[in-house]
Design goal:
It is built from 13 helices and 32 strands. It is α+β, with helices and mostly antiparallel strands. The two termini are 18 Å apart.
């Protein structure tokens, strides 16, 4: 493998320990400290934190003209999607008039790093270093991935019990169907007026998969059929003429698409469908959003679907090759692998992080549980007032598209569920030495597809952190240009600075000495080489900052006067012994190591003449890399999985484990 082709994925994971240990919070009056740390921040790379009081602060006249042009072409208001944020400050830009030129938008005179931003970053480090829960994980996140299988057509409906309980709902059933295509050329002028499930009578064209002649029962669908005298007569006539009765399924609107599908001849045989699989279909509709399948809904009277049975579950989708919604959730896997789900107030025990940073559980039942934080972090302000604010900031730039986290990519987000003795993939020559194929629900073993996984599989890799890297703003400008879009936002980043620029204070209350030293470790890693990541655009290298602890001040009550007394401590004397580096803290310091950061940090992409030496990668190139890495659709097997942190940190990692760009096919 050519060294230029190797890349390090922008993020990796700090593994969990065996178990999240929780205990009852206690205060020992003989080991109890209150006070604060004074800290400074140095910007190692450009930093951006948005001032959300206005999302059009950096949107100018040329942007609005471009938006108007695209709105006319697309038939929707695009201007609302154009965003431009200034750096965070206490300024309220919500009432500011629209600007004609970016030069009219002066940078803020007093930029601020919010305490909430610092708090989130520091809590994440503390949780990883000292075995805390996953406090910020979302229990609502849907786990899904595009299916490898071509699904079969069917009709989903609610079944009803027979006999004395006629009409009572008793679950869901699926009727397998056949399908035939109808071209847009055939139904030009009519298609836009047809609803999902439109009743269509047709004659097949020879042995082909396209219908020849067709007739339509106006405003009649599978779920809501018209049963008037005219409709009954037309159906009888077409049946005599050997027409087939079918129903139109409107697929995803794709440029260049030639035809839609008509489902017909539903089988008398029926398959029972679990209610959780139907719920998954409803979630999938949310996953697709309003831009795709906007007319599609799950109707108990009858819904046209594509399906594929895998074990006890039937995966349902509006698309022939669609996404699979998995039955497991992130919180399920956290609970069954060490109990790392967020702490709750139902018991009296909390993880080490929640005991310091606090917790809030909203049960959704008008009841919430909370534990007060023992740490308060102030906003970080400039150490010295800005003499020339322009020198603090880079010129506004448009960020490339940055996608959301995709936990469905199990080859990066989870550990392999295979046993050492298991055959990971099919025996075909072209997939030898691969890593196998799995999802959150099943794995392929040898030539047996879709073997169900245990409830605790696959194991999540751990907590997500970003590598440090040097962003190339010039390269980003050349790649993205100046045009905005729904996925491309304009920002004004602060320049990197070799000297401490900001200062802030971390107040603490009633911490024992061990907790206090852990908090101090969280601030500076007890290592001058290590740095934190703050703000937006972390995958591109933005937001690397070094925190320096300048002073430890303890507050004590003078029992004679009742006055609080402050006393500056010598940090080295107060903490004579450093915290020992266990496996997790060692991994954390590897990924936080600024001085020895890896080369060529970038998202996966395929090789082209344009992106061979470019930083970052767009969603299309990334999607293509993951598609190729998965192998052939019929016999998928991952070529590469995400290396471990210690492996990725090696400059000479063996080619079998290192990630590399793939050739575009």
């Amino acid at each position: 493998m050519n060294k230029e082709e190797r890349f390090v994925n922008p993020y990796n994971f700090i593994p969990f320990e065996r178990k999240c240990e929780r205990s009852k919070p206690e205060i020992n009056r003989n080991d109890c400290y209150t006070g604060y740390f004074d800290c400074k921040i140095t910007l190692l790379t450009p930093l951006f934190i948005p001032n959300t009081s206005s999302d059009t602060r950096l949107v100018c006249e040329s942007d609005r003209k471009e938006a108007a042009k695209r709105s006319e072409e697309d038939g929707k208001n695009v201007e609302e999607e154009f965003k431009g944020y200034d750096f965070f400050s206490y300024d309220d830009w919500s009432g500011e008039k629209a600007i004609d030129d970016l030069k009219e938008a002066y940078p803020p005179k007093e930029p601020i790093i919010p305490g909430s931003e610092l708090r989130g970053t520091l809590r994440s480090v503390y949780e990883a270093a000292f075995n805390g829960c996953m406090s910020s994980v979302s229990s609502e996140r849907i786990l899904s991935r595009r299916s490898n299988d071509v699904m079969k057509p069917g009709i989903l409906m609610e079944k009803k019990e027979q006999g004395d309980k006629v009409g009572k709902k008793s679950g869901w059933i699926l009727k397998p169907c056949k399908k035939v295509g109808i071209t847009f050329r055939q139904c030009s002028g009519e298609y836009e007026n047809w609803k999902e499930g439109q009743e269509i009578w047709f004659k097949p064209r020879g042995r082909g998969n396209i219908c020849d002649n067709y007739e339509v029962i106006e405003e009649s669908t599978y779920a809501e059929p018209k049963e008037g005298g005219k409709e009954r007569y037309e159906r009888a006539q077409w049946k005599k003429e050997k027409y087939f009765k079918g129903w139109l399924h409107k697929g995803e609107p794709i440029k260049g698409k030639c035809h839609e599908s008509i489902f017909y001849s539903p089988d008398k045989a029926r398959e029972n469908v679990l209610s959780c699989d139907v719920d998954a279909l409803k979630k999938l509709k949310q996953e697709y959003g309003t831009s795709r399948y906007n007319e599609y809904k799950v109707d108990p009277k009858g819904t046209l679907v594509y399906y594929n049975r895998k074990g006890e579950h039937i995966y349902l989708s509006p698309a022939c090759i669609g996404r699979e919604i998995f039955t497991k959730s992130i919180t399920d896997l956290l609970e069954k692998n060490g109990g790392y789900m967020p702490c709750t107030g139902s018991g009296d025990k909390l993880c080490p992080a929640c005991q310091i940073f606090g917790m809030l559980e909203n049960t959704g039942k008008h009841v919430s549980y909370s534990y007060a934080s023992k740490v308060r972090i102030t906003d970080a302000k400039l150490i010295q007032p800005a003499v020339d604010r322009d020198k603090l900031f880079d010129a506004p730039l448009v960020l490339p598209e940055l996608g959301e986290p995709k936990p469905g990519c199990v080859e990066f987000y989870t550990e392999s569920p295979y046993e050492l003795t298991e055959e990971k993939a099919h025996s075909d020559k072209y997939i030898e030495n691969r890593e196998g194929y799995w999802t959150y629900d099943y794995k392929d073993v040898g030539k047996i597809n879709h073997v169900p996984l245990e409830k605790n599989q696959p194991k999540l890799r751990g907590r997500k952190f970003y590598w440090h890297s040097n962003p190339d703003c010039k390269s980003i400008r050349e790649k993205t240009g100046e045009k905005l879009s729904a996925m491309k936002v304009r920002i004004r980043p602060m320049k990197k600075n070799n000297q401490p620029l900001f200062c802030f204070r971390v107040y603490f209350e009633q911490l024992n000495k061990q907790q206090l030293q852990q908090l101090k470790w969280t601030l500076d890693f007890e290592d001058r080489n290590c740095a934190h990541k703050l703000g937006r655009a972390k995958p591109l290298g933005f937001g690397s900052v070094k925190i320096q602890v300048d002073a430890l001040v303890l507050r004590e009550i003078d029992f004679k006067t009742g006055i609080w007394r402050e006393k500056v401590q010598d940090i080295k004397t107060f903490f004579p012994n450093p915290i020992w580096n266990n496996k997790n803290r060692t991994n954390l310091k590897l990924i936080a190591d600024w001085e020895n950061k890896p080369d060529n940090v970038r998202y996966p992409c395929v090789k082209t003449a344009k992106n061979a030496n470019a930083d970052g990668g767009d969603d299309a190139a990334g999607y293509e890399w993951f598609a190729q890495n998965k192998g052939k659709m019929r016999f998928p097997s991952f070529m590469k999985v995400l290396p471990k942190v210690a492996e990725d940190a090696l400059k000479d990692l063996e080619s079998g484990k290192a990630l590399d760009m793939l050739d575009r096919k």
